[in-house]
């Protein structure tokens, strides 16, 4: 085992060599390399220091805190899954309002456009008829000549 | 008579059972406070953080799903998010890794002599300084894994990262502390690539 691999395993898996993938090679390197041994000792010392950090807190302080928490709880109402429904409906309605406005505006514009088109078509037809009236007997003349 | 499990107590808390809630508080308060102390570096802020965390447990009890993980993982996840919210609100600089934590540290070995006690105290101080200089995610990962004994899976869930990312945080944190300790004991300055990885 190379020393770099040894150090990688040391950082990833901790100093318990028994849990490493190839413990025998690691132990051999540890016996042969002074540098590996020094790093291993440093890692063991770190692991021990981390465990020594502890999480003890003054029991009296904990008791007082537990009492404060217990006293706070009755002051607040528990949220429930129904809350999402109760606030969900107004939100949905609020979201529908701009949609409805957009739809009605869009619809009005569409109708107006259609009306304008229909009106312009009628106007065109009327003008055309008016032009035709100026040539009274046009159809007859047209038919007779051709 | 066996003590009710966290899951059973949470089912009762969902029915607004305050006795069950108080039972849970007493069961998990010490480790939660220990971790909060390390996060905040200040006992009074840690107390506020823990109090808010428990309030959220009560308020959102119905959101807890036993099949998604242990209650303690859910509890620490709430605390971690609360802490990050606090940092955003009040600024990271108001939270130190180590400031007022004398009460949260394990007492020195009573059987040791004065010289050994002094040596232990110096070693512990040096270690705490080194720990405080780590990037916060590495420090949190180390605390969750070593101080609180969470699995890598649970630790990853608490920090909201993938398991691989959590393992990488742990490895980088361990390496930084190992190199610091190696340099302190051997007097040798380690080159960046000399430490492996």
- Roughly what is the average pLDDT of chain B, rounded to an integer? 86
- Please give the CATH class of the largest domain in chain B: Mainly Alpha
Coarse shape of chain A: elongated
Tell me the β content of chain A: under 5%
Helical segment count of chain B = 8
What is the second-level CATH architecture of the largest domain in chain B? Orthogonal Bundle
**First-residue to last-residue Cα separation of chain B:** 51 Å
Radius of gyration of chain A: 45 Å
Average pLDDT rating of chain A = 77
Order of helices and strands of chain B: HHHHHHHH
CATH superfamily of the largest domain in chain B: RNA polymerase sigma factor, region 2, helix turn helix motif
Given as residue ranges, the uncertain stretches of chain B (5+ residues, pLDDT < 50) are 99-107
CATH fold title of the largest domain in chain B: Rna Polymerase Sigma Factor, Chain: A
Q: How many helical stretches of chain A?
A: 6
Please tally the β strands of chain B and state the result: 0
Helix and strand sequence of chain A: HHHHHH
Q: In percent, how helical is the residue content of chain B?
A: 55-70%
Strand content of chain B: under 5%
Measured by residues with Cβ under 8 Å of the partner chain's Cβ, the largest interface is:
A-B, 43 and 54 residues
Ranges of chain A where pLDDT stays below 50 over 5 or more residues in a row are 135-146
User: Strand pairing plus helix content of chain B: what structural class?
Assistant: mainly alpha
């Amino acid at each position: 085992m190379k020393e770099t691999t040894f150090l990688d395993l040391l950082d990833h898996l901790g100093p318990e060599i028994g849990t490493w993938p190839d413990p025998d090679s690691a132990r051999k390197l540890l016996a042969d390399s002074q540098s590996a041994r020094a790093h291993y000792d440093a890692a063991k010392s770190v692991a021990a220091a981390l465990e020594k950090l502890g999480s003890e807190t003054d029991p009296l302080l904990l008791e007082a805190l537990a009492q404060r928490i217990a006293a706070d709880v009755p002051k607040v109402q528990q949220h429930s899954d129904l809350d999402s429904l109760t606030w969900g409906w107004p939100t949905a309605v609020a979201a529908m309002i701009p949609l409805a406005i957009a739809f009605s505006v869009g619809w009005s514009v569409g109708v107006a456009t259609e009306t304008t088109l229909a009106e312009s078509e009628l106007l065109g037809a009327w003008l055309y008829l008016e032009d035709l009236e100026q040539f009274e007997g046009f159809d007859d003349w047209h038919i007779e000549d051709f | 008579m066996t003590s009710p499990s966290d899951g059973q107590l949470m089912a009762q808390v969902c029915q607004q059972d305050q006795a069950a809630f108080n039972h849970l508080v007493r069961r998990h308060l010490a480790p939660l406070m220990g971790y909060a102390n390390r996060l905040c570096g200040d006992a009074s802020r840690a107390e506020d953080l823990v109090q808010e965390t428990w309030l959220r447990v009560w308020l959102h009890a119905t959101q807890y799903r036993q099949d998604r993980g242990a209650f303690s993982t859910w509890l620490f996840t709430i605390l971690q998010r609360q802490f990050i919210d606090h940092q955003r609100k009040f600024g990271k600089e108001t939270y130190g890794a180590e400031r007022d934590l004398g009460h949260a540290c394990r007492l020195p070995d009573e059987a040791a002599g004065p010289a050994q006690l002094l040596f232990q105290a110096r070693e512990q101080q040096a270690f705490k300084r080194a720990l405080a200089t780590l990037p916060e995610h590495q420090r949190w990962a180390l605390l969750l894994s070593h101080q609180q004994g969470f699995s890598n899976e649970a630790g990853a869930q608490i920090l909201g990262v993938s398991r691989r990312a959590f393992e990488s945080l742990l490895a980088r944190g361990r390496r930084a502390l190992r190199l610091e300790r190696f340099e302190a004991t051997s007097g040798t300055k380690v080159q960046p690539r000399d430490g492996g990885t």
